[in-house]
Amino acid sequence: MNAQTRLSPLTAVEEAQPALSLVAPRRGALPDDPGLVGRDRELRALEEFLREARAHGAARVLCGHPGAGKSALLEAAVQAAAATGMRVLRCTGIRGGYPPDLSGLLQIVWPVLTGPHGPDAAGPLDALERVLVDGAPAPGGTSWLPFAVLRVLESVSRAGQPLLVAVDDWDALDPPSRDVLAFVARRAEGHPLALLMTCRPHRTRPASLAGLPGLPLGPLDPAASARLLAARRPGLEAHAVRELLATAAGNPLALLELPAGSEDSPPCMPASSDRLASALAPGTAHLPSGTRDLLLVAALHPAGDLPLLLSAASRIGGAELDFTALDPAERAGLVTFDGMRLRFGHPATAGAVVHGTDPRRCRAAHAALAAVLAPGSVQMLWHRSQAVQECDPELAGRLEAVHAQALEQCEPLMAVRLLRRASDLHPLPADRGRCALRAAQLAHVLGLERMTRTMAHRALRQPLGPLGRLCAEALTGTGNGGQPPADPAAWPAPAGAAEQENALELARITAPAVAGDDARAEALLAFLDAMPNLSDEPRLLHAMATAGPVRRAATVLAGVSAVRHLADVPVRDLERLGAAALLAGDPLRALDLYRQAERRHRFHDRSDQLPRVLLRQGLAHLAMGDRGQSGHAFRRCAERAEAYGQDHHAAAARLLEDLVRGLRTGGTVRPGSAADLEAARRSVRSIDAVLAVGTACALVEAGEYGAAWPALSSLLADPRSHAAALFALVPFAEAAEAENASEEALATLDRIEADLGAECPPVVAVRLAVARAVLADDRDDQGDRGDQDTQALSERAFAEDLSRWPSLEAPLRLAQGRRLRRRRQFADSRTALRQAAAGYTMLGAEARLARIAGELRAAGERADGGAPGLSRPAAARDLLTPQELRIAELAGRGLSNREVGEQLGLAPRTIGAYLYRIFPRLGVTARAQLTEALRDPQAA
Fold first, then answer.
1. Are 41 and 120 found together in one domain?
2. What confidence score (pLDDT) does residue 710 get?
3. What positions belong to coiled-coil segments (predicted)?
4. Do 195 and 227 belong to one domain?
5. Least confident of 7-11, 718-722, 725-729, 842-846
6. Shared-domain flag, residues 230 and 137
7. CA 380, CA 369: separation in Å to the nearest integer?
8. Containing structural domain, residue 253
9. In sequence order, what E strands does 170-292 have?
């Protein structure tokens, strides 16, 4: 009888034990057991439920989708209850079967029936045993059984130990048992009785559960999902983690059971496991064959609309299918129909419904899809390639040709798969090697380390050209610390288009490895210089900027500017051009390119690529001195990176966000942990130099010039940080001027300009001019000659086009205001200082404003914003146009430039330019003063 009713063993503890927290690690758990990750809220709720039940009885319904962790939470509650001295009775529903009536109740009551009991309970228990075990009719009719079970459980709970009744999969029990347990749950209050049941959500809540308190169990958030993967499945490569997080969608069972990205032989089908298939799609085998065919083609081609899928499914079975074939799958909760396409209930359900499908049937489904898709399309050729088993040179050639179309459609992973399959289908070794090598090169760009090594080794087994072999050898060491690439000085000149392509890829792969080695970097630059016909090729420019960001700055920027028709440039090349411009010292051009890349990724719904682009946008804003926009970009990057499991981008964004905070406020920049820095280096190779230069600049913002001056001097002298330190020439000059080290600083600037020579970028030339003008303040006390030199340097700096560089104009205005104040030209000084304050406010440099306010007071500025002895104009609002007035009102409410722009349909930089004009007119230096200035009937 026990085997027939599948009795669960009794869990009971005779002796009371101290209270146990469900959130704390369980006693007896393995030391490396991660526990229930991301379920702290639910565990605390269950802990409170058990306390409530021991005091006066309670019931809870734990409701969640398959794989959400209901059974694990139930088990945690059972262990905690047993540890605190509660007696536990349990039962479990059986899905996919037809349990006999009252079998669930028998599981719960059986330990009580077979255990010792007092003489008073002998009669009721004997009657209950006859009903449940022998199948005798209830002595009092149908209403007798619920009251009898309730009396028995109440008597057990009053026998000395509070009682927990734990029901797993309540909705899979037999109907009479479900009704009786729901009846008991409504009457648990007033007794030391807890009833905890788990069930799956239904379209409408079962009537018998209506009104019972519930504890909904949703999916894990992205951060918790990533922690669970790291704890239970360590060592996965980054791309596999991203795919698992996307497919699992926060489902713990899917996170643990889904196979990581594999390179199995065709035919291709969504991955799953036996356990996951039984949880997410338990009744698939009982569906009609036409419905199963429809689910199969929907899983293989999720982007298809329903008529196309029905047409393909009809070709598998040879019978015409109509919309009624969808009904059984909808009733089973496997899919929903939105009027055009099928949507699986969970992303992992697609793999669950086809798990265990025979490869021949899967190939037939691929062939059916290829027959109904647009001829020559990427998807049609992909499905056709999965349906063939023998070599097919014609198909292989078409796959190789169409991979470029996949790249244009922002589907780089599909391009890798097409090339890999083309390598399988080509009969000639040279063709197989060419496709395998190109697949390895693309996989390397995408960060697919395992795929890169696999395809590179496969390419090496085929005949390759000299540069192709060098490239394949370099790719075999991807991700495992292999041998560095060969010395560029020994590379042969490319002969032919294929070898030229391999030369560009080899330069791209090699450039990061030689960036710190002057001799090998020069050899690589010389190799690239020998290809003048490719002067605007994005890979060449990126490799050149990586190996020699200072030595080839002007050449790189000229090449970036020479690229035309950016709408036709692949998005990866847009990012390479942006990186080249940023490394060469033109962050404004880089920002424009990265914004175009962001729009392209959004258009193609490639949100997982946004963290990388947003991080680079933040770096460009940071290089431009815009603290507000850079902090906003880093925050967006960190949020999205955590959502997609890209821990390296998240670590870099958090470190840079802390840096921006220090630059804004002049506070201390907290050093990152060793683990964070190691992860961040995988995202931004120069993160150490960026953080070092930024930290030194934060010292300048804080007014700690004594520490900032030597730090920036050493960073400019260090080859490893020299390129990043070129963005800090003006803070370097400010620190030198404050420390009376202007002559030494001018010598450093002269040396930098001489080293750059003809390769000096225009932006760096502007920084040099502004830095010299800042340092010229020390010449004011050198008589008329010094005054003339100062005036000449200042005029030379103001002659530059600073409209796009508020981070350079603001310190120049500040230096001018100080100089005019020392000459006692107070009115002009206040004007320059207000302009400086407006610029720094637009940039989010909060630490500067207090010091500028002190300079304004020294120049005669009153606390209310007026100058001594001057009458105030009539009305503050009259000084602004309607558009300026609206922007000032919104900014005064605390809205950021981006938020103001979204309301008015303007770009954030346009809003910043408006505020740059508004601040001096109103005589304010901070956004917080705008509301008061506009409220005041008199202008400042």
1. yes
2. 94
3. none
4. no
5. 7-11
6. no
7. 7
8. 220-258
9. 193-199, 214-217
Please answer whether residues 97 and 173 qualify as being in contact, where contact means their C-beta atoms are separated by less than 8 angstroms.
no
Joined tokens for residue 40: 């702290």
What is the distance between the alpha carbons of residues 517 and 509, in angstroms, rounded to a whole number? 15
Q: What is the pLDDT of residue 595?
A: 95
Domain-embedded: residue 850: no
Percent helix, strand and coil across the chain, each to the nearest 5:
65, 5, 30
Is 813 in contact with 821 (CB distance < 8 Å)? no
Look at residue 21 and tell me if it is in a domain. yes
Q: Tell me the C-alpha distance between 925 and 853, whole Å.
A: 8
Inter-axis angle of helices 497-514 and 466-476, to 10 degrees? 40
Q: Give the chain's mean pLDDT.
A: 85
Distance, CA of 326 to CA of 312 (rounded, Å): 14
Tally of domains within the chain: 2
Average pLDDT (767-793) is 71
* Rounded Cα distance, 662 and 372, in Å: 59
Looking up tokens 């059972």 gives 78
CA atoms 307, 312, 315, 316: torsion sign: negative
> Helices 826-843 and 627-643 meet at what angle, rounded to 10?
10
- At 150 the pLDDT is 87
Q: How far is CA 98 from CA 5, 266, 376, 581, 851, in A?
A: 11, 38, 50, 68, 79
Q: What is the pLDDT of residue 824?
A: 85
pTM of the model: 0.76
Q: How far apart are CA 513 and CA 505, in angstroms?
A: 14
Name the one residue in this structure whose structure tokens are 């499908």: 357
Single-letter amino acid, residue 141: G
- Return the structure tokens found at 604: 């193609």
If you search the block for the tokens 């500040």, which residue do you land on?
814
Residue 791 has pLDDT above 70, yes or no: yes
Of 151-160, 348-357, 690-699, the one with minimum mean pLDDT is: 151-160
What's the number of CA atoms in the CB half-sphere (13 Å) around residue 381? 24
Is the pLDDT at 617 greater than 70? The verdict is yes
Residue pair 230/203 in contact by the 8 Å Cβ criterion: no
Count CA atoms closer than 13 A to 130's CA, side-chain side. 9
- Report if residue 147 sits inside a domain: yes
Residue 21, pLDDT above cutoff 50: no
**DSSP-assigned letter for residue 301:** -
The CATH number that applies at residue 162 is 3.40.50.300
| 179 lies in the same domain as 85 | yes
Same domain, 101 and 190: yes
| CA–CA separation, 402 and 756 (whole Å) | 44
Angle (CA) 344-348-352 rounded to 5° is 90
- Statement to judge: residues 211 and 122 lie in one domain: yes
pLDDT of residue 148: 85
Structure tokens at 10: 């009794």
- Secondary structure (DSSP) of 136-148: PPPTT-TTHHHHH
